Amino acid sequence: MARIANGKVALITGGGQGIGQAIAERLHADGFRVAVADLNIETAGKVADGLGGKQGGALALKVNVADRDSVFAAVDQALSGLGGFDVIVNNAGIAPSSPIEEITPESIEKLFSINFNGVVWGTQAATAAFRSLGHGGKIISAASQAGHIGNPGIALYSATKFAVRGFTQTAARDLVKHGITVNTYAPGIVRTPLVEDLVKQTATAAGKPEAWAWKQFTKGIALDRPSEPAEVAAVVSFLAGPDSNYITGQSILVDGGMVFN
């Protein structure tokens, strides 16, 4: 099916690989002009080029989501470079293992600065852009299955994702007066470089092969397999589109049946 432009602009952080890349590709296919924002400008550029570059409605931007000024600058560049701003997807994040006894002040600061602070800065920057343009918008952030039920071995990651859910619920109430909806998507085990690294860390820590670690990660999934990035992107597509206009403050699980509410 040919792409039909919808006149809207979306920015995706962490858009250079994995779930972020799949989201950028899906929203572009949906008709959005997309800003592919990533700390790694080379991977972001490859994704944007694959979508036709600026002429095709895709712009690569460098962003450090832990830096508030960097996030605001990325939103400003998306607005000026693509001619509008309607959706932000706060997708960027990291997921190192964090055994309880090994947590340090430095590891707390690093994980929260990216996974949680990045969502706060993205929410602030998007809200400012929407209001300057005189219309509402959609703020969509990455939570996790591990932000609904704490997962063993990744205490800090789980904590950041619980925090994202809590922040999202309050932001949804506070920003509704501006016509802004605020939601999260909560993936489970997805075949991405981030999860592959986590599987390797888990296997190494246990002194087991990677195949063993994959079984540990997927044994609680009702659908009996990890998801593909495109399946997560489909949920973000729904949240970014008009069919979700009456949904705000929610965390939509896309985990193959790991958590049931």
Automatic annotation (TrEMBL):
Alphabetical list of InterPro entries matching this protein: 23BDH, KR_dom, NAD(P)-bd_dom_sf, Sc_DH/Rdtase_CS, SDR_fam
Official protein name in the record: Diacetyl reductase [(S)-acetoin forming]
EC number: 1.1.1.304
First-tier enzyme category under EC: oxidoreductase
Domain Ketoreductase: 8-193
Reaction it catalyzes: (S)-acetoin + NAD(+) = diacetyl + NADH + H(+)
Organism: Agrilutibacter niabensis
Alphabetically ordered keywords of this record: NAD, Oxidoreductase
